[in-house]
Amino acid sequence: MTGRATRRSWFIWFAAVTVYLLAVFHRTSFGVAGLQAADRFGVGAAALGTFTVLQVGVYAAMQIPTGVLVDRYGPRRVLTGAVFFLGLGQILLALADSYPLGLLARAVVGFGDALTFVSILRLIAAHFPGRQYALLAALTGAIGYVGNLAATLPLGLLLDGPGWTPTFLAVGLLTALYTAVVALRVEDIPRGMPEPVREKVHPKVLGRQVADAWRTPGTRLGFWVHFSTMFAPNVLTMLWGVPFLVQGQGYPKATASSLLIVFVFGSMIGGPVIGGLIGRRPSLRMPLVGGYIGGAAVMWAVLLGWSGTMPVAVLVPVFAFLSLGGPVSMIGFALARDYNPLARVGTATGVVNVGGFVATTISALAVGVLLEWTGGTFRLALLSVIAVLAFGTFRMLVWWRRTRAVLFEAEARGEAIPVQIRRRRWDAEAPLPVSS
User: Fold this and answer.
1) What is the rounded distance in angstroms from the CA atom of residue 322 to the CA atom of residue 36?
2) Could you report how far apart the first and last alpha carbons of the chain are, in Å?
3) Which residues have C-beta within 8 Å of that of residue 306, sequence separation ≥ 6?
4) Is 269 exposed, middle or buried, given 0-12, 13-18 or 19+ CB atoms closer than 10 A?
5) Which residues, including other chains, have CB under 8 Å from residue 46's CB and lie 6 or more apart?
6) How confident is the model at residue 392 (pLDDT cuts 50, 70, 90)?
7) pLDDT confidence bin for 56, thresholds 50/70/90
């Protein structure tokens, strides 16, 4: 879209972003409900980690199909389905009294969650000019963290008060009711624009489109940026944050839940700031990613190397810095948008969005398994986060170099490029292969 966004476009975005707020609330609700879930279903750390692994695994597996569904049926229909499944999943969780049924409930939540973010990004692309894309994507993430805020201390108090079944039943029913708002208020495109042609996607065409997106160095770079920056805050807020603070550090549960709020406010403040900055100066995207990853490594060294109980005065700035991983991960979507033709942006966005959730799945499961093996030693179990961070950073550097080579080649042909860069001594003199 070119020109200015209309007031109706802003209303549509707000109605859609409320779905993302609900999705983040449901996604992160196990961050404070994990200990009750262990008691309710009678499971240990590894089995508890499976809840997050399954939920996030469903989310990751659905990202590329979600892009296809949005292309085929439009974001309004997909978002309507998202709200329905989010509500259904929490209603099932409220009534679940066995481990298998609890797993099914979280899988349904993951399915609904998976349909949300890519749909909203498509709405932003349709209703707002391109220069506002990065900022609106960041604002969407920031508002989503309001749901994360509600899933910390407020949800913890409700679980300690009315209890498991009334709490999850109420939030599930309220979410399901919002389906009507989405169906009636969200519009796929601005009024007056012609309806896009929505053709059936044949498997061979879909496979070729996904393969083309994956072979694009900018998409692959976006994938590894998302992989490396998003997963660590997810691991703490979605599952292991409260157990680490309660069982590993000795804090009361209410204090632990309150400390996780730092992730929420850090992301809410950092999202618009980073989004606005990279929207104005795209050349800062990769320096910001590199700065965050370097700082995150230091924060994890402090977190795992501290002797005894970490004071709140140390935990707060550590969590505040790590919380910026979510906003920084949005850079991956900007890369997908810049390096793919418009017809493939939805697919490329889905590919990028898989990255952080694959890393979350691997890391959350590894922490649970290592806790079982080490008898509940969180400092050893959380070393798996460092290992995943190191691997993702290595792959990101590989594809950063290859993307730069592609940019230099395009610049030599006289083509317009999204970011102006200067050749450095580590840059390749010729295009690098894209097969690995």
Assistant:
1) 26
2) 35
3) 314
4) middle
5) 368, 369, 371, 372
6) very high
7) confident
Judge whether 179 and 84 are in contact, CB under 8 Å.
yes
Checking if the pLDDT of 436 tops 70, the result is no
Which whole number is the average pLDDT over 343-358? Answer: 84
Nearest to 75 by CA among 45, 108, 119: 119
* pLDDT at residue 81 in the model: 94
Closest-CA residue to 356 (of 333, 329, 335, 336): 329
Nearest to 21 by CA among 78, 83, 76, 71: 83
From the list 227, 315, 211, 303, the residue with the least C-alpha distance to 263 is 315
Distance CA 288, CA 62 (A): 29
Please answer whether residues 82 and 58 qualify as being in contact, where contact means their C-beta atoms are separated by less than 8 angstroms: no
* Helix or strand (DSSP H, E) at 222: helix 217-235
Q: Which two tokens stand for residue 322?
A: 């790590």
Q: How far apart are CA 399 and CA 435, in angstroms?
A: 11
**How far is residue 294's CA from residue 291's CA, in Å, rounded to a whole number?**
5
The C-alpha angle with vertex 93 and arms to 351 and 360, in degrees rounded to 5, equals 30
- When comparing pLDDT for 282 and 205, which is higher? 282
Both tokens of residue 301? 């060294």
235 φ/ψ sector (left φ>0, alpha ψ -120 to 50, else beta): alpha
